Amino acid sequence: MQSRTWLSIIVPTLNESANIGTALTALQNCRATGAEVIVVDGGSSDDTVARAALLADLVVTAPRGRASQLQAGVRHARGELLLFLHADSLLPADALQLIQAATRHGERWGRFDVTITGEHPMLQIVARMMNVRSRWTGIATGDQGIFVARELLEAVGGVPQQALMEDIELSKRLRASARPACLRACVATSGRRWEKNGVWRTIWLMWRLRFAYWRGANPDDLRKQYENPRPSLER
Fold it and tell me: Does the pLDDT value for residue 225 go beyond 80?
């Protein structure tokens, strides 16, 4: 049986060669405290895996899809606590101390606030709206860096294996057991998906998809819409 560590940081990747070095370099201080970093690649065609292997404790592959990649990371993780982090996101400098403080106070799961990097002025408004909505509803998104006690994750059935909105569904299941710790320190996440397809288009798309999911839409159908938005008209 593998020895346990206090925290496993699980990073799903797909063709993240341009970002993975920066993302993992920023996690080296976490590794120095005893946390492990696991990269789960979904079949990259670039050199993401080779770059990640230099800076992670473990690199594994899994079928493409954030849910399946996260669950694969959980299977390999040794941590009593798990932190899911996007490959284009950076934790706040004191993230681990904040997580430790939250768990000492009995919190079993939680997330950070988020700030979105990019040039469009709406990105910071989007981030503030995400943070306020999350604090009000108790629902977290993957952009915010979700952390959860292994035993609680296992109790709710693990990461929901669905094509999209796995973070929303996971939050709903976790919230049924406990409200999240809403840490005000910010994860800095890239605004690239908003800027690629147009900020206003992406805002409308995400609200529409969330509403459709709330109405019971199939995540497979929602993923098709998410991955094939109409071309942007913004410049």
Answer: yes
Question: pLDDT tens for residues 31-52?
Answer: 999 999 999 999 999 999 999 9
Residue position matching structure tokens 């681990």: 96
Within-domain flag for 164: yes
**Which structural domain, as residue segments, surrounds residue 184?**
5-191
Look at residue 124 in the predicted model and tell me its pLDDT.
95
Backbone angles phi, psi at 187, to 5 degrees: -75, 135
Residue 217: left (phi > 0), alpha (psi -120 to 50), or beta?
beta
Cβ distance 115 to 124 under 8 Å? yes
Q: What is the CATH number of the domain that holds 12?
A: 3.90.550.10
Note the pLDDT tens digit of each residue in 75-129. Answer: 999 999 999 999 999 999 999 999 999 999 999 999 999 999 999 999 999 999 9
Which residue did the predictor score with more confidence, 84 or 210?
Answer: 84
Distance between first and last Cα of the chain: 55
Q: How many domains does the chain have?
A: 1
Distance separating alpha carbons of residues 181 and 233, to the nearest angstrom: 39
**Does any domain span residue 116?**
yes
